[in-house]
TrEMBL record, chain B:
CDD domains: EcfT. The chain crosses the membrane at residues 27-59, 65-83, 90-116, 136-155, 224-244. This is Cobalt transporter. It comes from the Bacteria. Keywords: Cell membrane, Membrane, Transmembrane, Transmembrane helix. GO terms for cellular component: plasma membrane. The keyword Coiled coil does not apply.
Amino acid sequence: MISFQNFSFRYEESKDFTLRGIDMTVRTGEFILLTGRSGCGKTTLIRSLNGLIPHFYPGEIKGDLLMDGHSLLEMKPSELAGQVGTVFQDPRSQFFMTDTTRELAFGCENLGLAREETIDRIARAAKELELVEYLNRSIFALSSGEKQQIAIGSVYALAPKVYIFDEPSANLDYAATKRLAEIMEKLKSAGYTIFVVEHRFYYLRDLIDRAFLIQNGKIEHEFTREQFCSLPEETRISYGLRTAYPERDAEHYQEKPHSQNTTHLLEVHDLGFAYKKGPEVFQNVSFEAHSGDVIGILGHNGAGKTTLLSILTGLLKQRHGEVRLDGKKLTPRQRRSLSYLVMQDTDYQLFASSVEEELSLGMQEDCKEKIDAVLNALELSDYRERHPASLSGGQKQRVTIGVAIVKDSLVIYFDEPTSGLDYDSMVRVSKLIEQLSDSGVIVFVVSHDFEFIVRTCTEVVQLDDDGTIQNQQLSPTVLKSLSEKYFT
Amino acid sequence: MDETQIKQIIKRQPLHGTALLDPRCKILLLVCIGFVSYFLAGEVVSLALMLVYGLFIALGNGGKWAAKMIITYIVVAYLNALLRYVQVPVLSVIMSVFGVTVLKLIPIVMMGLWILRTTYMDDLMVALQRMRLPQAVTIPLVVMFRYIPTLRIEYRQIRSTMDIRGISDTVWKRVCHPLATIEYILIPLLMRCLKVTDELAASGTTRGLELECKRYALRPIRFAWPEIVVSLLGILFLVGLLFIDQTQIGKIILWRV
């Protein structure tokens, strides 16, 4: 049993308490969902559970936090290692080893277990979680979903009683999310206590026992599964929550008016690509895009979405086929100059020491007025002197979008713009994209986020594993088939 | 599949030969090569150093890599020799100093990258612990070891953004503004680095990284007879080279054009 008793926490560097008077008792074997807007304190809550607070992130604590009668606050995170296991959000940055087998063994080796015991435990983890096919592989050759499974396996080998997942689906596609839900179900039926922090919680709807809504560092509401999954739409939206049934969006879909603005036409004809010595990533990719179209690029991890983006943006040269704008063939260099890519990880894209400088970077002529206009439109005027790295995730994303607008890009590509975003931020990105499309930009969005796709896109391009492609106007029938593919 | 089969898969070894030596032995040799490579002046002995350690690496999953580095070495040596025929004041001196430095570095790079590729991280951690190094030294070392392979991936990501934004995207711009180019690459790299190391440390901490128990790697790590023999032979060979370098053999000019 875990109980928070009037628990409050303030980070050393901040003035206000991030968590305020949390009272929560969780029985052994319960499956708990913690949700709420970004910055509401859910991550802080689980950091206190796994001992990172107060040892790794120091600060001021009030109240107490007990596990089976002992105070967790007096234990070091390393002492908790065999009892509370944490799977973090970004699978790329939680690996210590460079190969999978040793990553599974990492925790056990830290505990100083004997060799045979370690091997026993990782063999059991590999068997129970069906990870055998990934053994002895390089970490760098795995997809995000596979990495996430190895991360769970590594925690499993430590045999903790409590599992914590911090936004585990943020970087996963639908198939990998399904697999994640299966593993969680297995852990739940084995009697472990599980905490999940998540914005897109649709895949947990059959697993949760209780859900807690956290707002401004307090527990605002506690729900049972039935209550939580049947929240009326307005209430759910007022809490800033994503839907538990994204497939229902497909049924209520209303076709968006096709834009009349056809100033530019981007044609992709018979595009094909293969890496050196590798097999074809895709072939015969053809589609058209008009100014104002918002085109969703869908497909499994590894189906070639990133490669397609790299070719369209001109970072890679295609093997055969061509890309034309208004009938004129484009070289990779020309494609680079007219397009912009907003990456999932904005840290790669910010170079300058202030937001204003960032927007003017790489521009030849003086464009002060334009920058002012863009800063206003993106609600960034108050931050113009700030260092981009000091902004929040959403603000950084808006700065990169701002760069694209200043650059007068005709085509803007978004790579997973809504991973790890709450409802409000997702709607905000969707509206921004709508504005871009109204101003005549062609927008491509790579996304796994069904709710977002339904809300935003006018067309979808589906990349299948066999390298073929389908290009469809978004309509209720297309959405229906998509939702069947994703959710059943 | 049952657990005994899985255990066999776990114990399966893609590395063989010299790659399986204790990491301490590999690091010792690397340090010695580093010293000796800079003190050798003769062309024959330097080439001998390259060839013998190339062979050493080839015996442990590094055949292709050794071949690549030896070829690079010979090409650079020839180019360096060509410089004698180019008489541009100052510049030819600078170039030839540069060339010689590169030649001295090649054996070290060859050995160093081979160690990076053929050493399991847990072997390294155990070896460092057995050397009684404090955790304040071993943990940063291990994080660095883990971070180096990702640097290339991160670098590529940053370069693509720069290309799209038109920042230092042409050779001409890079040559004219080398400092700005470096700055634009380093800033995002450092930001990423800060974030990744923070997350990595958190993930390690919750899995007991800070515990100071005696560790055991997935395979036994011992500085035993093979390591002692290899280290002694390796060092004797290097000392031998230093002596031969002082004799007439050290004066033979190998690279003529």
